[in-house]
């Protein structure tokens, strides 16, 4: 009889611990601007991690000055690092499908997050990016940095992104 009690208690502990690990992100209070799915450990929705602007600002928020093929001259971009977002959701994959509002998508290697200091820009030149301004999120590689300048990353720099799927 004691063995059954210990087994039941152990099973309950594992189930409750797993639920706590899988639900350790707070729920967004504002409008959701980014949804992350796929191979992630930390959730706040039904199989997804949803982020509002306040939640994104709690990540490793950076401001960088760089150029793109889609803008004129140097521009200032601000947003969380891709690496900090992936850490927050407990990403466990090698690739990302970044999808825009219009369902256009690109594949981004997870390794780029650290190798190139990629940010998920939500602001450009001090202003929040609206949909008409390539928002809510524009994936930005700091092309003005030597390492990122070695390869054109125009394809990976998807704008109007609102979904990210982590893949094996």
Shape: globular
Report, as a whole number of angstroms, the end-to-end distance.
43 Å
Q: Can you tell me the CATH superfamily?
A: Oxidoreductase, molybdopterin-binding domain
The whole-number mean of residue pLDDT values reads 88
Largest sheet, strands/sense/barrel: 5 strands, mixed
Q: Which class in CATH terms?
A: Alpha Beta
At the fold tier of CATH, the topology name is Sulfite Oxidase, Chain A, domain 2
- Total count of domains: 1
Discrete helix count: 5
Structural class, from secondary structure content?
alpha+beta
Low-confidence parts: 3-23
Calculate Rg over CA atoms.
18 Å
**What order do the strands of the largest sheet run in, or round the barrel if closed?**
2-1-11-5-6
**How much of the polypeptide forms β-strand, as a percent range?**
25-35%
Percent of residues in helices? 25-40%
Question: How many β-strand stretches?
Answer: 11
Compressed to H and E, one letter per element, the order equals: HEEHEEHEEHEEEEHE
What's the CATH architecture? Alpha-Beta Complex
What does this structure look like?
- It is a single chain.
- With 168 residues, the chain is α+β, with helices and mostly antiparallel strands.
- It has a single domain, classed as Alpha-Beta Complex (Sulfite Oxidase, Chain A, domain 2).
- The protein contains five helices and eleven strands, in the order H-E-E-H-E-E-H-E-E-H-E-E-E-E-H-E.
- The chain has helices at residues 2-22, 53-57, 82-89, 112-115, 146-149; strands at 34-38, 49-51, 61-66, 75-80, 95-100, 105-109, 119-121, 123-124, 127-128, 138-140, 161-167.
- The strands form three sheets. A five-stranded mixed beta sheet has the order 2-1-11-5-6.
- Strand 8 and strand 9 (127-128) form a beta hairpin.
- The longest helix is centred in the N-terminal third of the chain and has 21 residues, at 2-22.
- The radius of gyration is 18 Å and the shape is globular.
- Mean pLDDT is 88; it is low at 3-23.
């Amino acid at each position: 009889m004691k063995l059954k009690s210990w087994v039941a208690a152990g099973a309950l502990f594992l189930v409750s611990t797993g639920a706590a690990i899988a639900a350790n992100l707070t729920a967004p209070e504002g409008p959701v601007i980014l949804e992350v799915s796929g191979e992630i450990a930390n959730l706040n929705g039904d199989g997804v991690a949803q982020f509002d602007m306040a939640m994104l600002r709690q990540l490793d928020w950076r401001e960088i000055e760089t150029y793109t093929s889609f803008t004129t001259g140097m521009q200032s971009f601000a947003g969380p690092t891709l690496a900090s977002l992936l850490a927050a959701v407990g990403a466990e994959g090698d690739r990302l499908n970044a999808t825009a509002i219009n369902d256009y998508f690109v594949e981004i290697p997870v390794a780029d997050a650290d190798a190139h200091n990629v940010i998920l820009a939500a602001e450009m030149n001090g202003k929040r990016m609206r949909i008409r301004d390539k928002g809510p999120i524009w994936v930005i590689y700091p092309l003005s940095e030597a390492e990122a300048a070695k390869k054109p990353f125009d394809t990976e720099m998807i704008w109007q992104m609102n979904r990210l799927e982590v893949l094996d």
